[in-house]
Structures are given as structure tokens and as C-alpha cells.
Amino acid sequence: MNALSPLLLALLLIAAAALAVAAALEAYPTIASVGDCSVSDGGEELKPIRREVYDGGRIFDISHRLTSDMPSWESEDGLGQFLRLAASMKNGSLANGSEMKLPVHTGTHVDAPGHVFDHYFDAGFDVDTLDLAVLNGPALLVDVPRDKNLTAEVMESLHIPKGVRRVLFRTLNTDRRLMYKKAFDTSYVGFMRDGAKWLVENTDIRLVGRIRPSLVF
Ligand SMILES: *[C@@H]1O[C@H](CO)[C@@H](O)[C@H](O)[C@H]1NC(C)=O
Ligand SMILES: *[C@@H]1O[C@H](CO)[C@@H](O)[C@H](O)[C@H]1NC(C)=O
Ligand SMILES: *[C@@H]1O[C@H](CO)[C@@H](O)[C@H](O)[C@H]1NC(C)=O
């Protein structure tokens, strides 16, 4: 490891699950079927409401809906069945109860420090050790060049102002809609080590969200 503090790098690798984002409304590519659902007025038909934008843009729900067709790390077949109804009211149970079984690295998630640093894993640094004050708050949405990985050179070229603590990088992965492709695509745009190091040493950023097939946004 170089001079970069492992913990800081781990924090940089964190992708936000639900952030308050001060950004344009079109920040997040909504799934058509999940789009704008409004409450049914007469109660004649119950329609699920899946809201993504709250208070005119104070909060964006950027988490992807879990589906069996969503990509899973190095899998050709996607996530597969991960949800089952273990107890059903139709079968006389008091309540419906579902069970989920899936890798914690699925869909929109935060990585714990122990995910990539074994000594943190051994010392018990799970997601519960992450700082909620870092995970929540205004974030800057940054469009990055579509023909490069997230290197130090790219980071420098973005001129992210001092004082910005959270950024979300919109990359080629979004344009390619990798989160909607079942087969895992290894050619995703990634956050390179020198890019992370540059951010730690030259900015106030504590949280980075980025997009890749098994991950965020
Ligand atoms: C309970 O589960 C049944 C399937 O057995 C489903 O049709 C029904 O909508 C569920 N009810 C609620 C309240 O989720
Ligand atoms: C309900 O009961 C039927 C008959 O025992 C069974 O085939 C079915 O899987 C059950 N469904 C759930 C959701 O428990
Ligand atoms: C990013 O790096 C990966 C792995 O080195 C490579 O496959 C991919 O083509 C790169 N993407 C871009 C846009 O340069």
C-alpha cells in the first residue's frame, strides 16, 4: 500500500444507497415501469407507489429495484431467484412473510471497509461502522468523460470545488445501461487506484458513488 490511508480509500469506495442530492431531476435514469406512479383516488385499484424524488429534489432514491434479472458479480445469469414468500395469507398465515437470500454486493449498496481490506474484516469493520453523517447529505453529480476510466488525470480535470464532500460520478456505465443487463459485463468504467488517491489528497471528498454492473446508481 502506498501513502493512501486504507480507511480513507475504503470510504471513497463507498457507494451511497440513498442520498440527499442537490442535482438536476434527470440525474437518475428511472426504469420505465417504476416511473411516475400516483396514488389512485377512488381506492378502486391499489397501485404500488415507488417514488424516487422527494421534496422537489431534496432527496433522490438512487437505489435500483432488486430483480432476478439484474447483474450479479461475474455471473452470466444475473441475480436469479432471491426472494420467496415463506408465509402466505392466502395459505392461512397471519401475515405474508418473504425471505431473501442474496449476496450483499448486489444492486445499490455500500461496501464495508472489510470488503477489500482483510484486516478491517477481521477487526469487525462492517457497514454498521460507517458514518451516517458522511452517507447522507448534499452531493455533487459529476458527468465524467465517457472514454476514460476514473484516473487521477480525469479527477484533476473535473475541477471539483473545495468543500464538496460527496460526489456521484455518472459514467459510460449509465449510458450503456449496464445495471439493466443480466450478464455481468467486465468492461465497466472503474475507479482506478490513482484516481482515488488523487481525490483523497486533493479534495474534501469523503464519499464517492459510482456506477458499475453490480453496483450503484
Ligand atoms: C400476501 O401474499 C399473497 C400471495 O399469497 C399476495 O397475493 C397478497 O397480495 C399479499 N398480501 C399483502 C398484504 O402483501
Ligand atoms: C400455499 O400452499 C400450497 C399448498 O400447500 C403450496 O403449494 C404453496 O406453495 C403455498 N404457497 C405459499 C406462498 O406458501
Ligand atoms: C477501463 O479499464 C478496463 C480494465 O482495465 C478496460 O477494460 C476498459 O476498457 C477501460 N475503459 C475505458 C473507457 O477506458
Summarize the structure.
One of its GO terms (biological process) is L-tryptophan catabolic process to kynurenine. The protein has 217 residues and is α/β, with parallel strands linked by helices. It folds into two domains: 9-27 and 52-109, no CATH class; 130-210, Glucose Oxidase, domain 1.
Strand content: 5-15%
What ions, cofactors and ligands are bound?
A: 2-acetamido-2-deoxy-beta-D-glucopyranose
Number of strands: 7
Radius of gyration using CA atoms only: 19 Å
- What is the 3D shape? globular
CATH top level class name of the largest domain:
Alpha Beta
Helix content: 10-25%
If helices are DSSP runs of H or I spanning 4 or more residues, what is the number of helices? 6
Spatial strand arrangement across the major sheet: 5-6-7
Class of secondary structure makeup: alpha/beta
How far apart are the termini?
29 Å
Q: What's the domain count?
A: 2
Q: CATH superfamily assignment of the largest domain?
A: Putative cyclase
Second rung of CATH, namely the architecture of the largest domain = 3-Layer(bba) Sandwich
Textual characterization of the structure:
The protein is α/β, with parallel strands linked by helices and 217 residues long. It folds into two domains: 9-27 and 52-109, no CATH class; 130-210, Glucose Oxidase, domain 1. Helix content is 17%, strand content 12%. The chain is built from six helices and seven strands. The strands form three sheets. Strands 5-6-7 form a three-stranded parallel sheet. It has a two-stranded antiparallel sheet with strand order 1-2. It starts with 5 loop residues before the first helix and ends in an 8-residue tail after the last strand. Residues 1-28, 31-40 and 213-217 have low confidence and may be disordered. One 2-acetamido-2-deoxy-beta-D-glucopyranose binds next to loops.
